[in-house]
């Protein structure tokens, strides 16, 4: 660990391979072999890891989270709602079997207390007197459980609303029940022994959420995304809209300290205007509990202080907010799809909480200093307290160095002041996902003890002290990739007489730079070719997995011999030319060695080589001789023989008296050897002197001619 002093950042170097005879290099941005650094210091960096009793702030600070524990897991896939009874027991409303459970606080046992014909129990509420109510959907029935919730008389239908869904229930201080319905949207009061009293009739398709604060009722709707204030008693009875979150669903509401209202809205970013709209993430959970919640939504968290304009405290795209609760003065938002919760304070500070076991955090219910959290798919219940946990564990995402690497230091930078302590561990392996082939977790004492490998993962164990915990603002891990061997991908011997060279305006040397400036990628070399009969050229393609700069050695030898003669040493171009006019006729081979010496120390240099197939150097044209010539009469018949000491013959032609050359073929019809016979037959030649020119070309283009006189 070290304090908040600065640290040196590794620089990236780039390698661009040369262009050779129409081949282009790939400036792919690979990093050369040098000490490199992985830095985690943002919310995005830490947020991709696994959080266990730890949380990450929007400033990228990693700390111990409020104490959170899993209390129970049940078989049902979805917990739609939870409520806390005066006794402290927790009531769970579930789907898709339409059941109600009681979680006994003292024993943590779960008892089934209701099993309905309807598929979903979408809402539960308890009254101050101990009565328990449950709403089922579809069908709009509201059940009351026994007398005072004792269970002696079982469940009875307390009310029936003319709506498909009952989305929420709330209890008044007088023991009445407030009912929020969907399809159509409305709010009703259910009082024992009385008919349902309509409190709000609206064009909204759904009223999704309710919350009471004294005699004030607040409600959230869809499709318009309104937050309503309904005054139930007094001279100012009536309804007003506090918030118009157009294109959203006002999905959850909660009351914080000082009567501050928090509203969680979520919906498709392009608006929700149609009456037949399905609630994103809500109705899809009914039909499909696999975690596919349909269109990606946009989530907002509003803070509504009485007498002031609404504040849009937090916005998040590509995620859906499912639930809302309060823990002290922090609003706690349950999001999907990874079972995470976000805490937002009145100072707008945001924290990403511990990872939970399910996919969606679907319901919350609070009491003094405690928040009960329900997670679905699979269904679990967690208990969150305001007090910090004693310990927390953060496990980073797998770090991919791209290459086999040797590890160096790992430093944890703390925010000051910071209490508690941090234990650091790492493990490494060569598979993308950790498995049994990875090394075991080992403690870090400044340097990483894990064996060299491509992948690394670190784990931080945070321990608190006196209500404080360490605040980690940055983690730096150093490594040096092992040097990888260059690759010579292709070697080509060019046709004789072609010289390759850099264009005159190409700057092969990099511009001077300061010691702390990162190297700029060099421009792509520009190569041109021209004819030069003395020259034999070769070209190749080469690359380096590390992006190291490469140098090339080129050597030549007569085929069949062992002694190489170096013609280029430590060259930087991916081509070479040599003067073939000084070489005797024969067959030769060229060897190219690619080495990463410009980027490595001598003891680390690696190389690769290719040896070409034999190729000819042939300065001498074929030898021609006349074997026979019958020049009188008709037809005229001439037979010649052509021989070359080095290469196969490849073409022949003849012309009479300076006329157009005509192609001819060997007697066996195939050019397939260094000696060929040709027979020329001419018809209808008039009397007089004539000259027949016969030309034969060898494999490298040398041409020999012979003249035959025809009297």
Briefly characterize the structure.
By secondary structure, this protein is mainly β.
What report would you give on this structure?
The structure is a single chain. The termini are far apart. Strands 1, 2, 33, 34, 35, 36, 37 and 38 form an eight-stranded antiparallel sheet that branches. This protein is elongated. The longest helix has 5 residues, at 43-47. It is 1% helix and 52% strand. The chain is an all-beta fold and 711 residues long. A hairpin with a 2-residue loop joins β26 and β27 (330-336).
Structural topology:
Blueprint: E1 36-40, H1 43-47, E2 50-52, E3 54-57, E4 62-64, E5 66-73, E6 78-84, E7 90-95, E8 99-103, E9 110-115, E10 120-126, E11 132-137, E12 141-145, E13 155-160, E14 165-171, E15 177-182, E16 186-190, E17 197-201, E18 206-213, E19 216-222, E20 226-231, E21 238-244, E22 249-255, E23 261-268, H2 283-287, E24 297-304, E25 311-317, E26 320-327, E27 330-336, E28 340-344, E29 350-352, E30 360-367, E31 370-376, E32 380-388, E33 391-395, E34 399-414, E35 421-429, E36 442-443, E37 453-463, E38 472-481, E39 487-493, E40 498-502, E41 527-531, E42 535-543, E43 551-558, E44 565-571, E45 575-579, E46 586-595, E47 607-611, E48 615-617, E49 623-630, E50 636-643, E51 649-656, E52 662-663, E53 675-682, E54 690-698, E55 703-710
Keywords:
711 residues, mainly beta, eight-stranded antiparallel sheet, 55 strands, disordered N terminus
Number of strands: 55
Q: Approximately how much beta-strand content do the residues carry?
A: over 45%
Put simply, the count of helices is 2
Gyration radius (Cα, Å) is 42 Å
> Overall 3D geometry?
elongated
| Chain-averaged pLDDT | 85
Helix/sheet category = mainly beta
Poorly predicted regions = 1-31, 148-152, 270-294, 505-525
Report the sheet with the most strands, covering strand number, pairing sense and barrel closure: 8 strands, antiparallel
N- and C-termini, Cα separation: 105 Å
Considering DSSP H and I runs of 4 or more, what fraction of the residues is helical?
under 10%
